[in-house]
UniProtKB/TrEMBL annotation:
Pfam families: Cons_hypoth698
Keywords from the named record: Cell membrane, Membrane, Transmembrane, Transmembrane helix
Domain of life: Bacteria
Biological classification of the source: Bacteria, Bacillati, Bacillota, Clostridia, Eubacteriales
Membrane topology of the entry: Multi-pass membrane protein
Protein name listed in UniProt: Sulfate exporter family transporter
Keyword set includes Transmembrane: yes
PANTHER family on file: INNER MEMBRANE PROTEIN YEIH-RELATED, UPF0324 INNER MEMBRANE PROTEIN YEIH
Family affiliation: Belongs to the UPF0324 family.
Any one of the GO CC terms: plasma membrane
Cell membrane recorded as keyword: yes
Source organism (scientific name): Candidatus Allofournierella pullistercoris
């Protein structure tokens, strides 16, 4: 009961915002409910709903509901859809993630940030935003300040790209499904941002961009393994430490919702999920998505942005710009755009 009381205010606020966003979207279907949910959430979360009592519920809505939504998405996709990215798509994701970590590390060094903070920024931008930062933080023994700042900057960068990428992909690719999905799913920081951005394009891009993003999330295990062998303590020393490699322990695995997604997708591919059940799963998944996007908006705080200062924001925007540029090059190389 105490847990329900703790989560209820934030969840109810996000739920109401989601309903309002969907109502507005009925009048403006070309924009869609996703952007309205995030926009209304940002406004409310920085004004009359900017209270600590909403914190637990918005955090639950942002993270847990989005995870449940991803699992339910498996009931609407076939394994053939997931495999549609092909080897070229996998190569694109691997190269994109590697170069993103490298760019974040080098840009952070030029701007004078510490090694651990640069590694957190690399993981957050390359993999899945806050979740990736939370996963690798204990691996590199990052302090809470670096963790908090990196989460804020990564989320802000993702929010900027979330709105701008649909415009960019319309200009570059005329919203062709594979290339647009690769750009959105291969660059945006959190899966909520991927879904929101893809919904602004619509059609098959939502499903395909989600698949690209899921592949990135699975790769968090490899990122954590590499990080565990890095020399993160001595600034200016070699990047990899023999002692760290011998004694580093990785506490990372594939997130439960990714495993659940693949299990449900296999069951659906075998024809064991009736069509009516699949339709209900899709509907519930969409509702969870909109509520989660409202929570994402509510958790973007203007005061946090102001507190980090222009230098940290410059770092985030620079990494985001590099991600987009590298993705454009790799899409031309691997996907023929």
């Amino acid at each position: 009961m105490n847990t329900i009381k703790q989560y209820a205010p934030g969840f109810i606020a996000c739920f109401v915002i989601s309903l309002l966003a969907q109502a507005i979207a009925l009048a403006l279907p070309s924009i869609g409910a996703a952007l309205f949910a995030i926009g209304i959430g940002i406004v409310c979360g920085n004004t009359f709903l900017n209270k600590s009592c909403f914190e637990a519920g918005t955090k639950f809505s942002e993270r847990s509901l989005l995870e449940y939504s991803i699992v339910l998405t498996g009931a609407t996709l076939m394994l053939s859809d997931i495999l549609a990215v092909g080897w070229n798509g996998l190569a694109f994701v691997a190269c994109q993630m590697t170069l993103t970590v490298f760019a974040a590390y080098q840009i952070g060094r030029l701007l004078g940030f510490g090694r651990k903070f640069r590694l957190l920024m690399g993981a957050g931008n390359a993999v899945c935003g806050s979740s990736a930062i939370a996963t690798v933080s204990p691996v590199i023994r990052a302090d809470s300040k670096d963790k908090g700042i990196s989460i804020t900057i990564v989320n802000v960068t993702g929010t900027i790209l979330m709105v701008s990428l649909p415009l960019l992909t319309g200009w570059l690719y005329q919203h062709e499904v594979m290339n647009t999905s690769a750009m959105i799913g291969g660059t945006l920081q959190s899966i909520g941002q991927v879904i929101a951005s893809a919904k602004l394009v619509g059609g098959e891009v939502v499903d395909m961009a989600t698949i690209f993003k899921i592949i990135r999330i699975v790769f968090i295990v490899l990122v954590a393994l590499v990080y565990s062998r890095m020399n993160v303590e001595q600034e200016g020393a070699g990047l990899f430490s023999k002692q760290q490699a011998e004694h580093g322990k990785v506490k990372a695995g594939i997130p439960w919702f990714i495993i659940g997604f693949f299990i449900i997708a296999v069951v659906h591919s075998l024809g064991w999920i009736p069509e009516p059940v699949s339709r209900v799963a899709k509907l519930v998944s969409q509702q969870f998505e909109i509520i989660a996007l409202a929570a994402i908006g509510m958790r973007v705080k203007f005061r946090d942005l102001a507190a980090e200062g222009p230098k940290a924001m410059l770092y985030g925007v620079s990494v985001g710009a590099c991600q987009v540029l590298v993705a454009w090059i790799l899409i031309r190389l691997f996907l023929g755009a």
